[in-house]
Amino acid sequence: MLIAGKTGRTNSQVTDKTHHIVFANEKGGTGKSTTAVHIAVALAYQGHKVAIIDLDPRQRTSYRYLENRVATMKRLNIDIPQPLFEVFDADNLARLEQLVRRMSHGVDYLLYDTPGRDDKFARFVATRANTLVTPINDSFVDFDLIGQVDPETYKVRKLSFYAELIWEARKARAKADGTTIDWVVLRNRTQYVEAHNMKRIVNALTELSQRVGFRIIPGLSERVIYRELFPAGLTMLDKDHLGRLATSHIAARQELRELIKHLSLPQPNAGGAEFGKPQLVA
C-alpha cells in the first residue's frame, strides 16, 4: 500500500533528477530509522517532494513511524508535511526495482531505511545511492563495523568488511555511470561518551576517512523525546503540535538543522521554506 501526504504526488513522470539517500548500517541501535524519518520530514517541510522505502519488513520502524503520523493528522484534523512511504516485503530484486521506479515518480528525494543486518536488498540500494549515510554511535563497538583499531594505540589497522563493501560499490558506480557516491558517516548519540574515548574515536574516524573518502558529520544526541514522539509520528519540527518545548527540545531541533546543513544535499527546489514553516506542494 502506497501512502502519501499532502506533499506527495504520484502522477508525475519518472525523473532522473531524484536524489537517492540510503541509510545503511549492518548493526542495529544506531538511530538509523529515527534519523531517516526526521530528515524525510525536514525535507518535506522545505517544500520538497519526498518518499521513503522501509527495507526491513520485520521491524518496519520508519513505516510505522509515518503510519502513526497519518493517524495523528486524522485524529487531530491537522495538515503537516508528510512524505510518501512504503515497506518492501517482496523477495526478489525485480520487485524492488519496480517499487523504486514507482516511488521515484515526481520525487526530489527518495530515502531508503535498511535493516541492521547484512541484506542483499540493502546492498543493492547502496549501489543506487547518491548519498549513503552510515549512522554510528560514538563507540569502538560501532566503529568496528567500518574499521579495526590497534588495542593499544587505537590506530586503524585495516578496513572492516562493510567499509570494503562500500568502497567496492563506489568504484563500481563510478565505473558504470560516472557517479560519485557521497558516503557520510553520521555520529549519533555523542553526548554521553567520555571525553578521552571520544577523542580516540574522532582520531580513528578521521584517519579512516582519509583512507576511504567518507565525510564525518554530527548527528542526533541521545534524547528521550525521540522515543516519545514515535507513537504520534511527530518530529521535532512539528513544534505547533508538541506543546511547550523544553530547552533540550529546542537544542534537538537545532541539531537537526545542523545535520541537514552538513549533509549538503542538492536543492532541486531552491528557496524552499525554512524548517518549521511548511511550504506544501499541491
Automatic annotation (TrEMBL):
CDD domains: ParAB_family
Superkingdom of source: Bacteria
Listed InterPro entries: DNA_Partitioning_ATPase, MipZ, P-loop_NTPase
Cross-referenced PANTHER family: COBQ_COBB_MIND_PARA NUCLEOTIDE BINDING DOMAIN-CONTAINING PROTEIN (PTHR13696:SF96), P-LOOP CONTAINING NUCLEOSIDE TRIPHOSPHATE HYDROLASE (PTHR13696)
Protein name as catalogued: AAA family ATPase
